[in-house]
Amino acid sequence: MSVRSRQIPQVAVPGILGGLGPMAHVQFEQCLIQGSAKRGAQSDQDHPVWLLVNGTSIPNRTESLQGTGPDCVPGLVRYAQLLERAGASFLVVTCNTAHGVYDQVQAQLGIPWIHLMACTSDYIRQAYPAVQRVGVLATDGTVQCGLYSRSLGQVGITPVGFELNSPWQDLVMQSIYHPDWGIKTTGTQVSTKALTVLEQATSWLKTQGAEVVIAGCTELSVAFAQMPALPLPWVDPLKVAADITLDLAWGHRSLPLWQAA
């Protein structure tokens, strides 16, 4: 497909698989727009063309990974292939937990899927070279698959998080999924209760030696962005992925970059 002209021609078209949950790709697109502005974008044509599928029909990723719900792989593959056919050069899936089936999906694609955990871990290693212990707040599915534990370990960082079924992990899950005050329900109007839970959970991670915390679920990225202060510096995988996406779009990095972590 053709892309709009600007002084530096766009060399790759991002394909965004969003809707996991409904606010995730919105937050990611905001990161892209803000990142473009910081790079000097002033007109429409200064922003890259990207493609988006709002894949809300894909089954719950945590339930899929735990065997308590339908398989999410066919839906991820279907929409990723749709983006590929439409002209996407690479894929960004705005859902941390979906990376639990990264290998199964990537094997059925002809374009690379940018791995959130791998690029976030690499970013932390470069941005915080002295950091040894990093806290992770994430869904049960992400924790069960050890997604951040594996990627952080590969760059020499010790992950700090909550055990499955522990009181703290249950509270983190409620902050995302609770039918009354969870972020998937409230959207951008994040409830005071969810914000309080996440602040307290981050404080607990700090007592365990965490020096930085990862918002390891895209709903948590939405919440953390609204918090004026946290007990620890936080890293947003969506922002990390947005910076890489812009680099790839304008040819400052080359494809492919990542394998499964």
Give an account of the 3D structure.
With 261 residues, the chain is an alpha/beta fold. The protein has helices at residues 24-38, 61-66, 73-86, 102-106, 116-127, 140-145, 147-154, 167-177, 183-186, 192-207, 218-224, 237-249, and strands at residues 14-18, 51-54, 90-93, 133-138, 158-160, 212-216, 234-235. The strands form two sheets. A four-stranded parallel β-sheet has the order 5-4-6-7. A three-stranded parallel β-sheet has the order 2-1-3, sandwiched between helices. Strand 6 (212-216), helix 11 and strand 7 form a beta-alpha-beta unit. It starts with 13 loop residues before the first strand and ends in a 12-residue tail after the last helix. Mean pLDDT is 94; it is low at 1-5.
Describe the structure using short key phrases.
single chain, 261 residues, alpha/beta, Rossmann fold, 2 domains, 4-stranded parallel beta sheet, 3-stranded parallel beta sheet, 12 helices, 45% helix, 11% strand, globular, disordered N terminus
